[in-house]
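Final report, Chapter 2: Outcomes

The project's central promise was a pipeline that accepts a single protein chain and returns its three-dimensional structure in a standardized token representation, suitable for archiving and comparison. That pipeline is now operational. To close this chapter, we reproduce one record exactly as it appears in the project archive, with the input sequence first and the structure output second.
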Amino acid sequence: MSNQDLEDNLFQSIRDGDERAYIRLYDCFKHELIQYALQKLGDPAEAEDVIQDFFLSIWSNRSQLPAINNIRGYMYLAIRNRILNALRKRKNQTHYLASLGSFMLQQESIYGKIYEKELQESLDKELDKLPNRMQEVFKLSREEHLSHKEISQQLGTSEQTVSKQITNTLRILRSKFKALIWGISLLISLLN
């Protein structure tokens, strides 16, 4: 009896519900078909999944298996089709993940801008509560990026006074924003 006849008999026995014939077919072709799928997919786990899915399909649909002249050719064609489906699925997943990543970056950017705007508004409100001279010194330092020496020359005061006012302003702002900073740190740690 030739290999072709043995394969045909295996398929007929599987159609009739013979579990041993199914196991024999699986054992005979599993490694060969996994190697074929691996060459095309490049991922051992995905190749094995394709082969497992194929053999599961054979057993699940055994009563509808067609009469086939070339079983090996049939299996390779079925595996090829499953490989093509897996590649399409992979391409769609890659596209989906790229789109999702882009969307999330946009959302982060939007939330970042909203947060930045709200933080700046809160900072401006707290600065407005400070004495005028402290506000002026702080804005020259942080917004105009002037050195303590340049600020002291512009305002006609000592560098030590400028330094003290900036230190006091930062101390006041830290105390006001301590709870906010703690809450943001907690939120960031929960998101990561």
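Archive annotation: Helices lie at 3-15, 19-41, 44-60, 71-128, 132-142, 148-155, 159-191.
This record, like all others produced under the grant, will remain available to the consortium after the project formally closes.
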